[in-house]
Structure formats: C-alpha cells, structure tokens
Batch of 4 targets.
Target 1
Amino acid sequence: MEIIVEKLNEDEFTVRVQQNGEMTQHNVTVSEVDWQKLTDKMCSKELLVEKSFEFLLEREPKESILSDFDIMVIAKYFPEYPDVIKKMI
C-alpha cells in the first residue's frame, strides 16, 4: 500500500492511497491549532496526515475513508485517535 500526501497550501492536502492497482483520493484540512494539539509541533503537517492515514487504514478499508474532511473528524469516529497519533509521531 502506498500513501501519497501532496501539500496544496498551508492547511490543505490531497492524499492518494494506492493498493492492488486501485486508488482513492482524499482532501484533508489541518488547521494550525489542530496540528499543534496533535503533534506539539514535533513533525510536519504532511507527516501528521500520512500517519493519520496509517491509523485509519489499520481500522478500515481505503474506500471507507471520507473523501473530504478535517483532520479532527477522525476523533469523532475513533476517540482514541489523538492519543494514538501522538505515540505514532
């Protein structure tokens, strides 16, 4: 599986997940406040997005991931997300 993160601007990213010749595309928003809250500025926003997709893909197929979402939406579906992502980074 390949996760490709493309930075569109300071807060918006396009993510492509490729597996078995099939690809999904997702638009993710990461605000400065959320980035600081989730990472304590210990990594780039791009790495946060990549690790967040690793987190999601451990729990659901790529086709189930929303196509357009704010990074904090993950915590609504998976309450453990903020704690787990801090450990992953």
Note: The beta strands are 2-7, 12-19, 22-29, 68-70.
Target 2
Amino acid sequence: MLLERGRLFGTNGIRGKTNEDLTPVTCYHIGLAIGTYFSGGRILLGHDGRTSSQLIRDAVKVALMETGNRVYDARMVPTPTLQYSVKSMGFDGGVMVTASHNPPEYNGIKVVASDGVELPRREEEKIERIFFSKAFKLGEVLEEPVFVSGLAEKHVEAILKHVDVELVREKKFKVVVDPGNGVGVMTTPFVARKLGCKTITIHSHVDGRFPGRGPEPVFDSLSDLCKSVKAAGADVGIAHDGDGDRAIFVDERGRIVWGTYSFALIADWFLEKRKTSIVVPVSFSQVIVDVAEKHGAEVVWTPVGSIVVARTMLERGALIGGEENGGVFYAPHHPVRDGAMTAALVLHILAERGKRLGELVDELPKYAFVKDKVACPDEKKKEAMRKVEAELSKKAWRVETVDGVKAWIDEKTWVLVRPSGTEPILRIYVESTSEELARKVLASEKSRIADLISSA
C-alpha cells in the first residue's frame, strides 16, 4: 500500500492487505475522505465476493452517510455493472470495494465519477489531500441506505444491445465460462445463454477465498478451463478476474488466447465498421499497430493503467481501447473494462465471420514478448531513467516517453523500461518477431541498464 508515501491510490484504485493496510478504521477514514469529496451526493456502493468486502463496505458506507451523502447499496456486483449503473441511473458517483485480480488476502476501493469511469488522477489527489489532512466535513445523515437490486440484469440487457442476438443464436455455440469464483458469474453466463449458447460453468460459485484457480486469469491458472473446453467440445472458453472486468479466452483447441490477440481481433472487426483511433497502454504489443495500419487508424499510447486508457478515450472521442491483460474498453457500450461485454463481442465476431476462434487468431501477426527487472534504489530512479532514455535514443528507430521509455529498435522490435511505483526496481519489457531474438535483446539491454544504474 502507498500510505507510507503519502498516497492512497495506485494505478487502479486503493489496494492493500486486509487488516494490515486496510483496517476497518483506515477504511472508515478513506470513506470520510471520499464522502467529503462528493459532499451531499447520491452514491452507488457495491462490493465483490471477497471475504473482507462486506466489512470494508460497511465501514465506507457509514462514512459516506456521516459526510451527508445519500447511499444506494448495490451489494454484490461486478465492477463494470456498478460503473455502468452509476452513469445509466444518474448517480453522482460510485464506490466499489474490490481488489480485482489480487490474492484473497487483499482488498481495495475504487472511486467512480458520475460518468461511470474511475476518477482521473487529479481528482484522486483531492481525496488524498482530504484524507491526509483529515479535513473531513461531517454533514447531516440524510436517511438509511437504499438497497437497489436488479443491476446485473439491466447490465446484461444493455450489453445485448451491441451485438446481433439472432445471428449468434443461429450458431448454437457451446461456451465454457470460468469466473474463477468471482462476481463475473453474475453477468457472463446470462449473456451467453441469452445469445443461445449452451453454457457450461466451472468455478462458478462466488467464494472470496478463490479456491478454484485464484482471482487472476493467467496462463498457469487456466488449465481447468482449457481441459473443460476440449472435453466438452466447446467453441470457446471465457475466464474472468475477481471483479469481472477482464476476459481471457480459450479457443476450440484448448489454447489460451492472451488479451493481446483477443483485443487485436476485436479492434480489427470494429475498424472495418467505424473509423476511430485505438487507445492502448505503451506496454501493448506491436500487433495493434499492424491492425491499425491495415485500416488507416491511429494508435494512441498512454501510461499503463486502465483509468488512463478510459480517460484518454473520453478526451479524444476514441471508441475502443484495450490492455494486454484482457481488458477491453468498448465505448459504444461504456468506455471501461467490461468482461461480459468483451465476451459478447467475441461471440458476435465468431458468428459474423463464420470462423473458429483459433482460425481467426492464427490469421493475426505474431510476436514474442519477454520481461525482466533490474534492482534500482528509489533515489536513483530519476537519474537512471534519464540515462536509459539517452542511451536508447542513440540507436532507436523511434522513442515514446509517455510512461518510462519505449524504444523501437526496428519496426518490429521494441524495448520498454519503466520504474516501478511500488518497488525499488526498473521493469524491462521486450517484444520481437521471435522469442530467441526477444530474449537476446532483453539480455543485452538488462546488462546495459544495470551498468547505467550503477553510474547514476
């Protein structure tokens, strides 16, 4: 947690270990700061299925009420459901208690603006100033919380408006959904069934201990889904993180389709229909550049973080954005990560193009991605990054500095160096046309960067 550094918010909300970083008292004070910020607003409050989420929700709820806000309690919902509901139902803001993909012992708090998107950094800083100065403004407790229900059902219906339901129904797809014991089970299986899919679920009971596979859908945790897809003869598998805003797919052969390629597939389909720029973090694969160039579209690079992607889309009027971890931002619905919306889009694309998921992914350009890290004391990071930029710029074909330094060695090979915001390290990412070449570049750059840090 960042409290020791005079910060509350990280790249995606407030996170920490329950009863260590996030004690009930700390969460109550965070709630007072959030409540003071909204000051008399109508606030939608929700939580995921973690064992500590109701405890934290109750601490925040009391604080929001004591600062004069009218609280509407959605209880357990996916994060994208709460975000969509804040905007569609005209709330002044929202608070979601979740730690998304983090291990069970963690929890967190996300603050949502009236547009249904998490607050931009400048607004988070206002809450931080209130919290650390304890400038809480208590107000009249307006009334008891209002419990609201049916939000997931309304969210599902909103998603279905953006796909051709009858076209997908005709295909009679078989789908395996793995919510990973998270709250994504409240939306995606219902979306799939309404699209006429024979829907099988695994790890589908909400359990905050995440006994099935853990809350993060990564290569090492999806073996059950891969086996289930093959055993069932399914067309596609869909996995979510703990709060349901990301989606990772498995194709008909039981192969994991990482978010890099599922988003490239969605972007390629969307750009055939509508002209727009594509917003992605600077860590995203070159494959999105290939897709954009095919359609004459612009790629807008942002710092890493879903909030930055969403806010940049709003500022530029972009209609689509993505992250390599399975986050897809589909603005015709709502410009935030939404795992159920992503699942519906992929099913629609399969139906429209008449091909299997594996076939469509095989048609995309392929790149190899590797990463590592180098120790770097916090006090040396600024000077080390200055030297890294100067060194990479000498030989780079192109350099991007929106978040760290990303240098294209050639048109298909790039190196990204970013200082960690939470650890005394620099992170190094390399992508190229083969794993052998990517690892060769990584080894060379890691050694060079270690030398630059020593001299910083």
Note: The radius of gyration is 22 Å.
Target 3
Amino acid sequence: HTLTHKNAITAQYMTSGHAAGNYVGYAGGRKSCARCHSHEGFVETQFTGMDTTAFNIQIPTPIGCATCHESHNTFDFENDGQDYALRTIAPIELIGWEGTIDMGNNSNLCGTCHQPRRPELVADANGNFKITSSHYGPHHGPQVTVLFGMGGYEFDGILPYPEAGSGAHYKDVTCVGCHMAEGDNNDGGHTFWPTNAACTACHTNGVPDIAEEIHGLLDQLAELLRAEGVLDADNHLVTGEYPIAVAGAFFNYISIEEDRSVGVHNPKYVKAILTNTIE
C-alpha cells in the first residue's frame, strides 16, 4: 500500500498495450465489443455472464486496475483471502465454440478476452462459405486458442498436429509465466512484455528464433490467397463467396497474423497449420 510500490506498478502498466492502445474506441456504441474493450463492459459481463453488455456504453473508459482486480470489500484477509483478487480465474468459456480451456491459474483471466470470438467454419450445401464482412476472421487477439493448439481449419498434410494442450508454453508456462515475469519498468510485471529472463529460464541453450521461418510461411500463404482473390494486393480481405477450403485457408492465415507471436505461442501447431494450408 506504499506509493513506491503502487507507482512502480502504475509506471509499468502505462507502457502496456492495455493502457496505451486505442482499443477503447471500439467499445463506444458496440455492445459486442464493450465486453473486452472497456472497463465498464468487462465488469458488467463478469457479473452477468453474458457475451455482450445490456446496452451500448456511451463513454467507455480504458482497462485499468479495477477492471481485472476486485475492489476491497472486507479487508478481512485472514478469513476472506486476498481481498483484491482477480475478477475471475475460472476456466475460459470460448465464444462461438464448444467447450472451455483451463490453464489452472491466473492466466485464465487473460484468455477471457484474448480468444478468437468467431465460430468454426461450416460449408453450405454447395461446399462454399460466404464472407460478408471485411473484418471476418478471428478476433484481433486469438492467443489462447493458438497457445492451446486449436481453432484453425485443419487441413491434412505433411506435418502432424500436436495434441491440443501439449505445447510447453501452454502446459508449463502459460500467459503469466512469460508476460508477467519479474522484470523492470521496461518489461515484465504489469508491462505484459515478456522478459529475456523468462525465456532463458527454460531455453538454457538459447532462445530459438523462428520468426523468419514463420514470416516466410505467412508470405507464401498470402501469395496463394491473393491468387484465389480472397486477399487484394495489399493483403486486405475481399468479401465474397469462396470454396470452404479457400475460406479456411484465409482463416488460418489471419489467425496466425492476429496472434502476433510469430509462432512463439505454439511453434509446432503454427508450423503445422501454415505448412499444411500451403500444401
């Protein structure tokens, strides 16, 4: 409760994407976005259990301390435990998908929002899928399903898909272990930027650099999608009706792009998804 302690956390948090990003603008007047793009929306939906807020939030405010943490209620720590606990660490209810994901720790809070929020692709009677929105595809943060190893349109191909939940970053480290490891004001903690120390604690022989390989696979897939007409010359989605395989290939491409870890969250799954889609 000292200012020194609080100010250090605040300084870290203000460098995070949650604090510095422009995400809150999506919450204004959009019930389906407010759940994760505003403080008010997240708090409301944690109480109601709904996917959207009841009404549009006219003046949403950004995610802050009290978004993820409950307010003090009793101050009776001996009997009530941590009286400033996280609002939820319950298993993650996937929106638009059946089932839950349970990391078994505080990382479940992260996955409450960092999930695709798009249902699985289903072909129509003619084997096609109609993309009606230029924003189609996974939500901008589908990290939890990539981390778990699910959610892609899985083509058969040369690489086998690892068992869901088998990735080391999911079962051994999870979100908090990498993104909130002890650091300084520039990384770790409430900056949510992974620290080198968190990586080298496991990768004692050096951290594998897979970014170039994943970027190369994404570029190959983008070229194929441009040839199919589902991406334009600037790699923007073109709405229309496509064979389910083409729509699925786009879904895989944008899933890995929007995950933004360049494969780090689940290297084996990401390589399999991209390689088999290209094949």
Note: The two ends are 57 Å apart (CA to CA).
Target 4
Amino acid sequence: MGRRGMARSVTIRGLMAGAMCLGLAACDIVGLGSPPVPQPPTSDPPLPVVAPEPTPKSAAAMIYYAQIQQTLLTQGMLRTDGGREIAFSDRMLTENFMRIALFDEYRRGSGGFVREETESRLRRWEVPVRVGVRFGPSVAPDRQATDRARISSFVARLAQVTGHPMSLDDRNPNFLIYIVSEDEREALGPTIRTMLPALSPGDIAGITAMPRSTYCLVYALSEGNSGAYSRAFAVIRSEHPDLLRLSCIHEELTQGLGLPNDSPRARPSIFNDDEEFALLTDQDELLLRILYNPALRPGMTAAEARPIVESLARRLAGGDS
C-alpha cells in the first residue's frame, strides 16, 4: 500500500549560506505565487479568488488517493481514536523510543537517500520552532484556511506536549511546510536549490520525483554531529483527501521534531507503516515528552541515551508488564 510519510534527517556542514535565505520573507516559493498587485479602488465588490482547475496529472492523483483513503478506512485503518485500549509497558515504550528516535530509516548516499536502517544520534530542536506554511495556487482559499487552522492547532499541541517553544510564523520560519500539487511539486527544484544549496541532486529528486507510494515527507537538517536541528521542510500533496491530509500534517510535523524512524512494534503509534493510526496517539505523545526531557541532549548515542530513556519510560508508563 505504501507509506504515509517519510522523514529524512540530513547532517550538513556549512549551512550559513542557506540560513539567511530561509529566514527572509522574500524567499517565497518560486512559481507558487507572487505578491498581490495593488488594484485601483472600485465600488464593485472584489471577485472571489478561485483556484485553477486541476491538471490531468493532479486530477488523477486526487482519484488515486481518494481510493487509497477509502480502502484503508474499509479495512479499519486510519484510526483517529488514539488507541487508548491498547496497553504498553515501560519496556515497550523504551524500545519504541530507541528504535524511532535513535535509528534512521534512510542512509544518505552519493546519489541521494537509500532505504537502510542505521543507528544514529539523538536529534531535536534547541531553538524555537517557527512553522511557515506555503500553498501552491492549486489550493483553494477555503482549503488553505482549513489547513492553516489545523496546522496552527497541532503546533500548539506539540508545544504543550514537548514543552518546547513552537509557533506559526510565516515571516521568519525555520520549519517550512509546502502543500502543493503534483505539477507544483515537480517544479520545486530551483526553489529547493536556492533555499538549501547543500542538498545533492539526488536529495532534491527525492522531493520533485516523489513516488505515489510516499504520501508526504519531511527533511530535517542539523550541522555536524551536534544533533541540533536548525531547519526542516515538509511536502504534503494537495491532492490528498481530508483524513490523509490531516495524517500527513501530524506525521511530518512530529517526525521533523526528532522522531525520524518507524517501527513495526510501535502500537498504538503513527510511527508504524501499517497505517492503523492516522493521528498522534497517547504513546506518541510520551515519545515526544521523552525526546524533549532536559535529561537528554542532542548528539547522544544510543548507548548514552538508553539508561536515561529507561528511567523516563518507567516514570511515564509505569510497570513492566
């Protein structure tokens, strides 16, 4: 069936050239809209802004993902209840955290990312997370308003869970979310190269040539071995129906905070490729609370983090059943 989301953690040295551009309001998405042109005064009411008709490629994607969502719902997947009836012990919480936070699903090769699980270091944000949202012109204004409201609400929830400062900030973002159509995403290459010049052509192709089986993705970047994220950007398909779209918002924002891997043993969790849960679960919240606990620090190895994670998991989940 394919994956709902992908997270790719990129460690890059020398990001200063791109950092300034990322933080400027003028660095908008190339080809995804331009500043409004002032209109002369008129007594007539302004005409409503209407999104253009979808291209054949985008229309086909809408049909495809609507079918995917319906099939998953028919199978009892994409649950939104949080799975509170599913018990998990502190030992399970520990192992899920170790696998999801301290392993990468992808290894960066010379031609881009290769799917290969490798042990990594603990990563998270140390600076406030400022989330900016960019829409392609294919996204209707009412849909934009709904998406923005949902993202704002979820950012506030994540800030409360982690205790880390997070906010919606379109003027000076360091975590950008693009909601774009097939054609708009394929044209993002020049924008990505301008914003993140250290990415390889293979990295960029991972976005512009994203396969159908990838519903959405996020890249999170840190410098050297610090483990401290400095920026992230996510891509969500505008063709998604409502629940798939919301699930992508939950997964990519959460993975972009420092939970880049998936585990088939994690349940209830969105960090599992089985698509059972669409939205952040209670266990996922505990994973985030562990990740942003002051006892842990970015750059820790799995061996350094494990005893601290075990102690935190006992406190949060209790028991050893």
Note: Residues 21 and 180 are 21 Å apart (CA to CA).
